[in-house]
Amino acid sequence: MTPTACLLVIGNEILSGRTQDANIRFIATGLAQAGIALEEVRVIPDKARRIVETVATCRVQFDHVFTTGGIGPTHDDITAGCVAEAVGVPLECHEESYRELEAYLGKEKFNKARQRMAWLPRGAVPIRNTVSIAPGFSIANVHVMAGVPSIMQSMFTALLPTLEGGAPLCSVAWHADLREGTLAEGLEAIQHDFPELDLGSYPFERPDGRRGVSLVAKGYDEEKVEAAGERIKALIESLGVTPIAGEPAP
Amino acid sequence: MTPTACLLVIGNEILSGRTQDANIRFIATGLAQAGIALEEVRVIPDKARRIVETVATCRVQFDHVFTTGGIGPTHDDITAGCVAEAVGVPLECHEESYRELEAYLGKEKFNKARQRMAWLPRGAVPIRNTVSIAPGFSIANVHVMAGVPSIMQSMFTALLPTLEGGAPLCSVAWHADLREGTLAEGLEAIQHDFPELDLGSYPFERPDGRRGVSLVAKGYDEEKVEAAGERIKALIESLGVTPIAGEPAP
Asked: Which residues does the UniProt record annotate as the domain MoaB/Mog (chains A, B) (predicted)?
């Protein structure tokens, strides 16, 4: 069975429109390659009650929960405490992280606010990164990462090989200068023959205004994905249009 | 009271990493300006059970639910039926939309798959757009829009003035070449004095690698936001650094 995952993006800045999300796609792509199915993403504000409830709900519903954001030294960095509460363990000083932070920052700069960063849920395993000393960690099936993209990416890259995945998600895409409505029936027939795959149809618009559609077959069984891809190609050809191979959308 | 909202992004293509989301920020920004608080975003797959349950849950929890994706003519376009089920009304042919689709496409092209697009939840009010004839609609407190950004934007722009909002979300931002840990205590003191505002601290990295932090005060009371902004500016100056005004992050 392919393990499942949920990503929680913690941060008011996405919800207010201030910031364009730059983390979801990186994590989604990495999980797909690792054979872990990302089944939901939630963007939630950095309010303690919301974080605790969401982590507690999602970690029962999915095999893994990944979080980004809220692990710095400021008052709105409350993820560690909330995750501890959701998992049901106390927050305590993680001695090794404390020493590392102190050594990195120097005793003088290692003020009260920064010392808070060394407080992790009891039993947490740090997630290393090569960009900063931000204190990412895993506790049970919850993996807590930074929100800054470069730091998150370094953490996620270190974390991913430690998680057990299934076969990677495979996909085949064909693009065509067709409208969805023209090929909907043919596509549904293919979906019917490959119930274990996701067949998607994604209209797009080229910069010059011409519209087309990308047909994508996705799943964890490579042979079936290939076979469905051939059927999609033949469907486009049967409608008198030349299929264009490739990903992403042209 | 500021009305609350949740956005549901329906689509496997974001979850598989195939597509970068291009809708969240547009909607988030529009809602903030309209005085509607976006409190959650969920990205979910186009599986009927998941859509029905999520819409049913979220429309009780928030004043408004916005959805994007899944309203085209193909087999994976199941949003209208799922929303009907979540709201508890039947899906039925919306005569006006049927006639419009038929007139637009011509009788010959208006095949079975495309006719499905005219089936809306009973009582639905169409959301117009100037880009296509995609059948967006509102039913109760659920607003269903296309996933293609240009069409979604046209629908959202038509829809937003029909919704009652509160005062718009205001924000003030100051950027500084400082690290979060240095100003965390000062910032917490300001947050303490303005409990009704969100004070956020967002580290960033310039293209040349230099790091800084953006301090943002946000809320629905413009005077208090201004006052908190002055306090933030003074805090940065007290740390011997020149505050840089503006938004977004430099």
From this structure: 6-166
- Tell which residue, B18, B214, B133, B61, has the closest CA to residue A246: B18
3-state helix, strand, coil in chain A (%, to 5): 40, 25, 35
State the smallest CA–CA distance between residue B113 and chain A in angstroms. 6
- Cα(B225)–Cα(B217) distance, integer angstroms: 6
ipTM of the complex: 0.90
Contact B77, A79 (CB under 8 A): no
B20 vs A25: CB contact, 8 Å cut-off?
yes
The residues near A221 (Cβ < 8 Å, ≥ 6 apart) are A167, A170, A196, A197
Q: How many angstroms separate the CA of residue A42 from the nearest CA in chain B?
A: 4
> Options 3.30.70.600, 3.40.50.12780, 3.30.420.40, 1.10.10.10; which CATH number does B170-245 get?
3.30.70.600
Q: Please indicate whether, in this complex, the C-beta atoms of A28 and B15 are within 8 angstroms of each other.
A: yes
Terminal alpha carbon distance of chain B: 33
Answer whether A42 sits within 8 Å of B39, measured CB to CB.
no
What is the pLDDT, as a whole number, of residue B211?
84
The DSSP annotation for A160-179 comes to GGGS---SPPEEEEEEES--
The domain locations on chain B are 4-162, 170-245
- Interface-testing mutation among A66, A76, A169, with chain B (most B C-beta atoms within 10 A): A76
Nearest CA in chain A to B206: A150
Kindly state the tokens that stand for A153: 């990416």
Domain A171-245 in the same topology as domain A4-162: no
* Angle at A144 (CA atoms; ends A3, A75), nearest 5 degrees: 150
B216: its two tokens: 């943002």
**Chain A neighbors of B135, CB-CB under 8 A:** none
**Hey, what CATH class is A171-245 in?**
alpha beta
Which residues in B lie closer than 8 A to residue A38 (C-beta atoms)? 15-17
State which residue of chain B sits closest to A27, comparing Cα positions.
Answer: B17
Measure B88 CA to nearest chain A CA, in Å.
Answer: 24
B118 CA to chain A: closest CA distance, Å?
13
Assign B212 to helix, strand or coil. strand
Domain covering A4-162 in this structure, CATH number: 3.40.980.10
Q: Could B41 and A39 be called an inter-chain contact, meaning their C-beta atoms sit closer than 8 Å? A: no
Question: Could you tell me which of A99, A82, A101 has the C-alpha nearest to residue A91?
Answer: A82
Q: How confident is the model over A194-216, as pLDDT tens digits?
A: 999 999 998 887 888 788 999 99
User: Residue A111: closest CA among chain B residues belongs to which residue?
Assistant: B181
The answer to whether B24 contacts A21, with C-beta atoms less than 8 Å apart, is yes
Q: Give the dihedral sign, CA B202/B29/A206/A172.
A: positive
What is the per-residue pLDDT across A106-147, written as a single tens digit (0 to 9) for each? 999 999 999 999 999 999 999 999 988 888 999 999 999 999
Distance from CA of A82 to the nearest CA of B (A): 17
